[in-house]
Automatic annotation (TrEMBL):
Source lineage: Eukaryota, Metazoa, Ecdysozoa, Arthropoda, Hexapoda
Record-annotated disulphide pairs: C163-C196, C164-C183
Primary location recorded for the protein, binned into one broad class: membrane
PANTHER family documented for this protein: TETRASPANIN, TETRASPANIN-2A
Family in the record: Belongs to the tetraspanin (TM4SF) family.
Protein name (database record): Tetraspanin
Cellular compartments per GO CC: plasma membrane
Transmembrane segments: 25-48, 68-92, 99-121, 209-236
Topology of this chain in the membrane: Multi-pass membrane protein
Keywords: Disulfide bond, Membrane, Transmembrane, Transmembrane helix
Entry keyword Phosphoprotein: no
């Protein structure tokens, strides 16, 4: 009878050891994926921040608040690089306390990803807080377009983005100003239908969507890592109990 119990416990311990190894290496692989995603997010957000042409647009439009979300995602990316490395170490050595700290850090990373994405999209998408700022800048440029440097800035925006006025050609008609040449299509001669507020917002939105998608992918990976870490901690605790009973 005792030998049967010992055999049963031995089989249970062996099965548990295999399960621990499976979860451990799965967690290790997901941490590698998280590290690579964090590196990609870091590279992309740094590129957004230092891109010379893009930075010039931010300066002209005076929408530096766009960078708030970018800074948060840069901090998230650096944090993920460190946490993912520590998570790999904690998983491989089966360190219970390290896994507990890692789980807490996964929650922090998840919240940072959600918060950073929300802030970035709130300051870069259609009908967000960025549009009134762009509208204010564009209206000032149009009102003072007879002077420099407003005239040059307005011409550069409308030629580069292929837009006209703040909301459209009617902005010049309402101010009783002639429609600038750069407001017209060089081929058809017709005025651009879209205003610069919408066109510039869509320009910012295109960059933000990629960063937001990467951050949300990281958030999903953090959830998976947190669940795997909890499962591994429970399995290690159960293994300790089995070893204690056998002794």
């Amino acid at each position: 009878m005792d030998s049967r119990k010992i055999d049963t416990r031995g089989e249970s311990a062996a099965r548990l050891a295999r399960n621990i190894a499976c979860v451990k290496y799965t967690l290790f692989c997901f941490n590698i994926v998280a590290w690579l995603c964090g590196l990609g997010l870091f590279a992309f957000t740094i590129w957004i921040r230092v891109e010379p042409g893009f930075e010039e647009w931010i300066r002209i439009l005076d929408v530096y608040s766009y960078y708030i979300g970018v800074y948060i995602l840069i901090a998230l990316a650096v944090f993920v690089l460190v946490v993912s490395f520590l998570g790999c170490c904690a998983a491989l050595v089966e360190h219970g306390l390290g896994l507990m700290i890692f789980t807490i850090l996964q929650i922090i990373c998840f919240l940072l990803a959600i918060f950073g994405t929300a802030i970035l999209l709130e300051h870069s998408t259609y009908e967000s807080r960025i549009q009134p700022m762009i509208r204010y800048t564009m209206n000032n440029l149009i009102m003072y377009s007879e002077h420099e440097p407003q005239r040059t800035m307005l011409r550069m925006i409308q030629e580069s983005v292929a837009c006209c006025g703040s909301e459209g050609p009617n902005d010049y008609l309402n101010l009783r100003q002639p429609l600038p040449i750069e407001c017209r299509d060089t081929i058809t001669g017709h005025a651009f239908a879209n205003g610069c507020v919408d066109e510039l917002t869509w320009y910012l939105e295109d960059k933000s969507i990629w960063a937001a998608a990467m951050a949300m992918s990281l958030a999903m990976i953090h959830v998976i890592n947190g669940v795997l870490a909890i499962i591994l901690m429970q399995a290690l605790r159960r293994e300790e109990q089995i070893m204690y009973r056998r002794n």
